Amino acid sequence: MILAIIFLLTDLFICGITYMVYGGKPVYSDGMILGVHIRREVQEEPELVEFLEGYRKQVKRIYAGVTVLGVAICGLCFWYSSIFMIAWCIWFVAYLAGALGVLYLNHRKLYDLKIQNGWGFTEDASTTMRVVDTRTIMKSGRMALPLWYHIIPLAILVIPFVSVDFRDYLGTFSPNSQGWILFITSATVGIVFLWIAWIFKRIPNRVYSENSDLNYRINYIEKRSWSICFLGANICNTIAWLYLVRRITKNRWIYNIDIWIYIGIINLSVIVAIAMLIWIKKQKNILQKEDETPLYMDDDYYWRNGWYANPEDARLFVQDRFNSMNYTTNLGRPAGRYLVGGICAGVLVLLIWMCVIFLRMDFTPIRMVREDEEIRITSGYTNTFFETDDMQSVALLEDGIPKDQYNRTNGSDDGKQLLGKFEGKKLGECRMYVWLEYTPVIQIKTKEYTVFINSKDANETKQWYDELKE
To answer: pLDDT category, 433, cuts 50, 70, 90?
Structure first.
């Protein structure tokens, strides 16, 4: 159930964000429509209007189709998780192909229409101009918020360690317990936001007009707004962590609802970022419409296929044509091609690896073997080995695993099976190899942790129990 909800929200979020950024209504901005430089006065040309209307219909059909399909396949979570994961990976690849394909293909069609009808700013489609507004550059340092502001929320992350109760809680469990994992995650997220803010602060200012004041106003809006957004995200991350600390010190445990609230607080920054993106675009369009001396740079030839490929440009990363907040790779350079190819191959390998892991968890049976003085438990995900001398007690639980609050530290919980490493509020560290719908369950207490194991066959479970009692 939880897996289905997580992926359902993820699919809706991915489709919604991508549609808003790349698939929404194409408007005239920065001298471009759909990433192609076109003169402002040709916006009402019948051929252009007809093309854009067809593009909008095509985009709506594709995004509606992939969204409905993405929602539908979440139902497979109630069958086999592995079958769902395979279907989801295929959906994800198809989604990327559809979203990028419709964008790049129509970009190329519009570029060809521009060349055919002479809608550009210059006769040479490969013209590239680099313009520098020195007055705007001189003021760029004052546009974004100072980076040291981020140090404050980062420093607050470690304040809870002053509390004895908090340190006792973390000291009770292993270094890979959920409390430690969440602290490391919060610290990492905070550092990443600081890193992003540093990169964005160093991005050169863009020149939009011959009017330096207009250039300054647009760049100021972008840099100041996004720096506030990044700082706000860091603050949300810190607030989320402090909420968990409060729950830890009060209950000496982290419940699932606490994790959901933690994620929700962090995701507030995503909502703010979306609102900020919409507001910045609106303000830029307002300012540019008032500009009487626009300055255009027509380098569409190097973007004609939708991606940037300019072997004469020494830059490896350039600002994305379709989303000014994003950076893309210069595929005209060998390093750019190797980088993109490596990332694509890495993602493909990761998806295949995930599918294999889920298949093993669903279809590799749990086995327990006793050889001399060693007990070996194997499964499709994790294995456990211990000596018989390490066993403190063995019990056959007819009612299943004891009632407790179990948190995963390195395991799987798909509503049918608990598999891997868990922590119990009362029992501490556990190793789970349990089918939830089947009983009885064997409980093995060792010096370091408690093991729970059963089989779908009750007779096999009882056979294992007899072997352990010998």
So the answer is: very high
Q: How many domains does the chain fold into?
A: 2
> Which of 328, 405, 139, 262 has its CA nearest to residue 418?
405
Domain of residue 155 covers 132-294
pLDDT of residue 26: 76
Long-range Cβ contacts of 117-125 (<8 Å, 24+ apart): 117/42, 117/45, 117/47, 119/38, 119/39, 119/42, 119/45, 119/48, 120/37, 120/38, 120/39, 120/298, 120/300, 121/31, 121/37, 121/39, 121/296, 121/298, 122/298, 125/298, 125/300, 125/301
Return d(Cα 110, Cα 5) in angstroms, integer.
Answer: 39
Nearest to 148 by CA among 43, 227, 90: 227
Q: Which of 294, 324, 351 is the last residue of a domain?
A: 294
pLDDT bracket for residue 137 (50, 70, 90): low
Task: Looking at the structure, tell me whether residues 382 and 252 fall in a common domain.
Answer: no
Structure tokens, 52: 């854009």
Flag whether 387 is in a domain.
yes
Q: What is the mean pLDDT of residues 111-126?
A: 74
Indicate the residue type of 70: G
Q: Interhelix angle for 212-251 vs 178-202, to 10°?
A: 170
pTM to 2 decimal places: 0.76
CATH number for the domain including 158? Answer: 1.20.120
Return the residue matching tokens 């790349």.
22
| pLDDT the model gives residue 87 | 94
The answer to whether residues 255 and 152 belong to one domain is yes
Do 265 and 387 fall within a single domain? no
